[in-house]
Amino acid sequence: MSIKRPRISPIAWGIAPAALLFVLFFILPFGVMALLSVLSGNPVSNPNVTFTWRHYNRLFDSDLYFDALVATMRIGAVTTVISLLIGYPLAHWMARMRSRLGHAALLMAVIAPLLTGIVVRTFAWMTLLSDRGVINTTLQWLGFAPLPLMYNEFGVIVGLVHIYVPFMVLTLVGVIGRIDRTLEEAASGLGAGRFRTFLEVTLPLSLPGILAGSLLVFALAISAYVTPVVLGGNNVLTLPMLIYQQVSASFNLGFAGALGVVLLAVSLALVFAYNAVLGRLTGERQIA
Amino acid sequence: MSKRFGGAHAAYLTLNGAIVAFLLLPIAIVLVFALNPTPYIAFPPVGVTLRWFVKFFSSPEFMNALWLSIYVAVIVVILSTVIGALCALAIARGNLPGFRLLTTVFLSPLMLPAILTGLALFQLFMLAGLGRPVWGLVVGHTLVAVPYVLRTTLAVLQNFDRRVEEAAAMLGASPSRVFFEVTLPLIRPGVIAGGIFAFIVSFDQLPISLFLVVPSGETLPVVLLNYIRFDLDGAIAAASMVSIVLALTAVLLLERIIGLRAYVRL
Q1: Dihedral sign, CA of A135, A137, A141, A147?
Q2: DSSP H or E segment with residue A239
Q3: CATH code for the domain of B64
Q4: Lowest mean pLDDT among A18-27, A58-67, B159-168, B233-242
Q5: Most buried of A36, A149, A210, B8, CB within 10 angstroms?
Q6: Do A127 and B43 touch (CB under 8 A)?
Q7: B255, exposed or middle or buried, with CB in 10 Å at 0-12, 13-18, 19+?
Q8: Per the CB < 8 Å rule, is B123 touching A29?
Q9: CA B255 – CA B262 distance, rounded (Å)
């Protein structure tokens, strides 16, 4: 491309307020967080602070912290897989829906939970999963023993899946919708059954969407706070819960910072991967 | 075209129906508990009452929190629409180098864990000796609301025909007149939609608020979270209904103004 770049117009100054907001209240705070994670104390009130790795070492000192890290990743992974299994059929249905009204109704059904507060949705699951909740009351009425559905990882995963399925669906819909339908028709024209067409044409072509959606859901699930705290009770400890505990109960800003940096590093890696996958996808679309 | 296997297609529809039910039923069930008169969460419901709504709207604790949430959300809407719309215009029309990277950077608060944004802001305020001022809460919410406005406004800007602006300029309109009489009216739906998202995002914001509220001035989600950890009665269901009605209104408004598709196109 040898087209000369047009001059920067005065409208470009419009970026200044956003840039100021981001530098002062996004980049600077994260810098402070990283700084506190390697200092022995508060550099403002205490002039004798020194550089230290002890906040990071502490992560491996005790099984408690390391287990929390492992539990966070496990919950994130299981949530991602289930969200994909639930989200894919719905996204497929939505992408193939010919009626505009039906499509709009489905879109609303997916976005409405997204816009409902997270505490509200978690409360809704409490009313379903608790010992006296809807499911256990019904089970007992039918003569079965009640099941431990809440205050364990199961309850946390159910709540997280409900919250993050819409993100999976919204990522997949675009990708499935972009698949050239003539390819599917060609496959079935050549004698492949519906299931084989799906397995050998549709599914492989939607892999980038599956990857992007999974990265997004995993990133969101490992940083969830409300759902693990409420539906996990005292039996589940995840990284975000640990971070909040360090601030609210122990007031250990250094250790909280170290935990934050660990979560940030994982999230950043996931975000870059997500952008790379989606970037390649839109690139392909522009070529086509 | 529609040559279908009856059985397989029926299974496909049943599966999808079940998934939609999974998404919506938990929200619907909240209404049952909001109207059920028993003082604890019990199923099946035994009657219909409005006492939980009365309790919610007459409790000073809930009402203070509700007003603080609305107060913060309104300021956040104003700040984020101005900052976000200006930023979108600069990115779409400013011929800035590296505008793609800039977009990614400004959208990043949506992707990074909000709990970390809360923690980082809290640490900054502590270090600077600022404590936890209400404006800090507003700043934290604005940070996560700006990306929504940016996204909806950019979507509108990328869709409309630049020749309209060029035509106006050619016909002798000054750049500022082109901006106020052509560009601004055209991007208005995107900005309004972004503003609605900003309101919802701020009103429901929890992970950032958690670190930045003071004990005497908590937003509604924080009060609700503390409440459900110790009490489970209909008041919380009534509070939830208020929040759900607000969200549904927003969804319908968005669909009318810009169409939900703009939200989907990430």
Answers
A1: positive
A2: helix A239-248
A3: 1.10.3720.10
A4: B159-168
A5: A36
A6: yes
A7: middle
A8: yes
A9: 9
A-chain residues within 8 Å CB-CB of B114? 223
Query: Are the beta carbons of A239 and A222 closer than 8 angstroms?
Result: yes
How many structural domains does chain B have?
2
Segment A211-270, tens digit of pLDDT: 989 998 999 999 999 999 999 988 999 999 999 999 988 888 899 999 999 999 998 898
The answer to whether the peptide bond before residue A146 is cis (omega within 30 degrees of 0) is no
CB contact under 8 A, B93 and A11: yes
Asked whether residue B28 falls in the same domain as residue B119, the answer is no
Place of tokens 């679309």: A285
Q: Which of B49, B71, B88 is the last residue of a domain?
A: B49
Q: Are residues B43 and B59 in the same domain?
A: no
Q: What is the pTM of this model?
A: 0.87
User: CB of A123 within 8 A of CB of B30?
Assistant: yes
Tokens of B15: 């599966």
Largest CA distance in chain A: 78
Write down the ipTM of this complex: 0.86
Q: Does B27 touch chain A (CB under 8 A)?
A: yes
